[in-house]
Amino acid sequence: MGxxxxxxxxxxxxxxSIYGYTLIRALHEMGIEIHLIATEMGVKVMQFExxxxxxxxxxxxxxxxxxxxxxxVASGSFKTDGMVIVxxxxxxxxxxANGVGDALLSRAASVVMKERRNLVIVPRExxxxxxxxxxxxxxxxxxxxxxxxSPGFYHRPTEIxxxxxxxxxxxxxxxxxxxxxxxxxxxxx
Length: 189
Description:
By secondary structure, the protein is of the alpha/beta class. The protein has helices at about 15-30, 40-50, 90-95, 105-115, 130-140, 160-175; strands spanning about 5-10, 35-40, 60-65, 85-90, 120-125, 145. The protein has a single domain (about 5-175), classed as Rossmann fold, CATH 3.40.50.1950.
């Protein structure tokens, strides 16, 4: 018996909540089951930057509290098709890179890695210092996709949503999902 595709989305306190919000809506439109984990600061930054309350996302996703280590996504026996953390703070990235699983976000990421499922981390920080880079290297060496929030400009965007869709499209590419969110190099819409 088959099931719908199931993706975990994590939102942390880094700037760039619009990427996570847009990804959740795009995945929802595709009929994908979404499990959302937001850190306490992720909830606050999303409210500040986007005017979106975590309760607003319950129409698109199953929302898990970050301190609930009994949540389904904390277990490898709960089948998922991957996880995206967008935006990913350096605090969360460091916890994941160092195997700290004391909150649901880092525990779910650890589960995704141990089960050899697709984990995409979208760091939103500048500049990086050496510890940030070492943590990203550690994760990349384990097969985690590191996709910095660095939108391209070759499609000549004129609106913010075009930059956001570019990044969300790249995230969906990493998940192996077909979409039409962005113009690809050498292809005109």
